[in-house]
Amino acid sequence: MLSVDIEKLYPAAKTLVKARAASRIHAKDATLYDFSEEAQACAEQFMGWADLASAPQCDLAAIQAFSDEVVEAGIDTILLIGQGGSTQAPMTITKYNKHDSTRVKFRTLDSDSPVRVREMLTICDPHRTLVIISSKSGGTIEPRMLLEAVRAAFEKELGDHVVKHLVAITDPGSDLDKQAREEGWRAVFSGEPTVGGRFSALSVFGLVPAALAGIDMEAFMAHAREAEEACSEDAIDNPAINLAAFLYDNYLKGRNKFSFLTPKRGRVLGLWIEQLVAESLGKNGEGILPNIEIDSLLLTDDPGDRSIIMYQTQTDLWDERRNFEMSLAYIDSAIPRLNYRIDTVEELAEHFIMWEYAIAMCGYLMGVCPFDQPDVASAKAEVLEILHNGQPEPNFTEVFTEDVDMGNVEVTYAPVFEGCEDLHETLYALLSSIQPGDFFALNAFLPFTGEGRREAIEQMRHGVAESFGCVSCLEVGPRYLHSTGQLQKGGPNMGVFLILSADELKDIPLPEGAAAPSLGELAKAQAAGDLVTLAKRGRRCVHLHLPDNSGVTLRQLAQVVDDVIADIFTDRALAEAAAMAEDEELAEATVVVETSASTEAAIDAELGDTTEVVDVEDALEAAEKAAQAVEGEQAEA
């Protein structure tokens, strides 16, 4: 059962109990969000997730039977294509379970990088692979384009039989639902329209992949029911209430970010939490930022703007356990912390429910609707506009390396950096704008596989974090557009964004009539659209489109970023030294003036003690008589 190591009771817990927030959420009472007509209307449409454990909206027996039939038919690989909420929970479940099950190899494809797509096509045997296309609306651009690319490759091997290797998970009546039924796909699983994507872990979007991966569905749902009962109770020991109060009360104290710390196995849970928190709460100028990958040594001193949520997970290797424990030992004890533990994949169901209830309650406390994502829709519209009208012109292009000509980089920036004329000046302006309480995000539409790529990208991210002492996030495009992208645009203006994309050395063309001519062009349009949307909201952002995405090019860019950071701190040190010298000169001048004034005051004081004020003429007459007397005495002598 859910357990938490909590240091104290946070005041907002009493507020939530008094408002009966937990039980009202379970009852799907949208009036909890009556702080605005829009929020209440949205809640009325999207609270179907609140009782999925006790009242499932799908046939669990049918899902289990289907998954068993697929495996018995010789399928040994599942390729899940989707985006956002359609993939985050399945990826969490299947990756966490990977250590304990060999039933099938489960792959998730939510990247439109041709490098990643080619990798998936290489390792998947079409004859033994089941492709699941998961999309609530059925119209999200990334799954549609990825389906086109994967289907074209599979048809070369399977011909018309390819449809028996396709499965759709989508809401009833969507274009994907219609296509799958008309073409006779192997199966179609209908979602529940009142369940939003990021709240869909316990719906068909999470349960079908879980069953295929070999999860014990009865045990999984038993854990879910137990958690739902606990999290829907209006009690001070409700774990969801405690989590919501921890997040909200620390938010009120300026801790509007939290660092997620866990051993390697649990990190995939962070991706799901990141989307749920950022997309649900990051709007109307409010928001709480999850920082899901962090070097704990950055927390040896309390930065004052974040809290910590720590998850212990089942870890078989003693060294991994010890390494994680040592990383926690150096964290400043002044930083508020919650500690959780997950031992089995079935226990994930409990934490899905706890977090969903907690974030729904946080939305109530913060006065934001946790069920919509207005800025995600705005970014999608910008991308479609760019695909239709063409790429916007960059502010300038230049050869971005001095020693080796690796080609031109296209540089586009927000109006706040107007006047920058070269890459160094642009990056200098971007990074030097980071202030205490800000966060930095590297939004990368790049492949994360292949030698040197990930290392170079991490070098840039960690370099900024260590140098500026700020939260530094690595966001994978286009995934983040459906996740933290909402908070980046709709939350508080505390983000500094470097967006990266690159030309593809071997792009993957899409069929005629597709929304984009190729996957590479789609990724570039998404990066450009992200900058346009961020800039319209007054965010500090720069988009660099590189000549290619090779590891050596990314390493060279990382060196450029390092050099810029070094120059910023050199200039700051020189400015500080100059200011100190000026202060010393001013202090010396002040000492001289004060000494002179003191001397004059002392003379005045001495004269004041030994003389009396007399008439000037009388003084002159007395002096003359005294001189004559002295002369007479000298003459007699």
TrEMBL record:
A GO molecular function held by the record: isomerase activity
Keywords from the UniProt entry: Gluconeogenesis, Glycolysis, Isomerase
Listed SUPFAM superfamilies: SIS domain (SSF53697)
UniProt xrefs under InterPro entries: G6P_Isomerase, SIS_dom_sf, SIS_PGI_1
Pfam families referenced in this protein's UniProt entry, alphabetically: PGI (PF00342)
PANTHER family hit by this protein: GLUCOSE-6-PHOSPHATE ISOMERASE
Name of this chain's protein: Glucose-6-phosphate isomerase
Organism from which the protein derives: Adlercreutzia shanghongiae
Organism taxonomic ancestry: Bacteria, Bacillati, Actinomycetota, Coriobacteriia, Eggerthellales
